[in-house]
Amino acid sequence: MDAVAARLGLHRAYSTTSAVDDVLTEQTAAANRKATDNGGRAIGPHGSALAMQPCVLDIRGRVLADVLHLESLLDDARTHGMPVRLIHRLEAAVRNGHMLTVLLSDTSHATADAHTAGH
Fold first, then answer.
1. How far is CA 108 from CA 20, 41, 82, in A?
2. Distance, CA of 6 to CA of 68 (rounded, Å)
3. What pTM value is reported for the model?
4. Do residues 70 and 97 touch, judged by C-beta distance below 8 A?
5. Which of 42, 91, 111, 119 is the most exposed place for a label (fewest CB within 10 A)?
6. Is the pLDDT score of 76 beyond 60?
7. 64 or 43: which carries more pLDDT confidence?
8. CA distance 9 to 11
């Protein structure tokens, strides 16, 4: 059931931390498998910094969308008086997510700068 839900992009809630740990472990393993499968393919045969820019921009767009979703969850948690620890964790996730989008923006600029410097 969980595998089907995951393939459809659906997620369910887990009531124990051990069940959450199992999901986190599987997510990490799946990400590692995907990274191994895609290793060295992002830049391609040209080895250009500019070749990785589309991937970085794509990742930034997905992270930004997720961070905005996290902000919505944070607002809901505050509105519904959720536990302070949960709110603090969501605040940290939002803050770090925004930092990641800034770093990815900087990385995108760096790919263009590296391309310009090489010519």
1. 34, 18, 37
2. 21
3. 0.78
4. yes
5. 119
6. yes
7. 64
8. 7
Mean pLDDT (whole number) for 83-93: 98
DSSP 1: -
**112 CB neighbour count, 10 Å cutoff:** 12
Residues 82 and 69: their CA atoms lie apart, in Å, by: 17
Whole-angstrom distance, CA of residue 115 vs CA of residue 110: 8
pLDDT-derived band at 37 (thresholds 50, 70, 90) equals low
Query: DSSP secondary structure string, 10-69?
Result: -----SSHHHHHHHHHHHHHHHHHHHHHHTTTTTGGG--GGGGHHHHHHHHHHHHHHHHH
- For residue 68, pLDDT beyond 70: yes
Tokens 């948690």 correspond to: 77
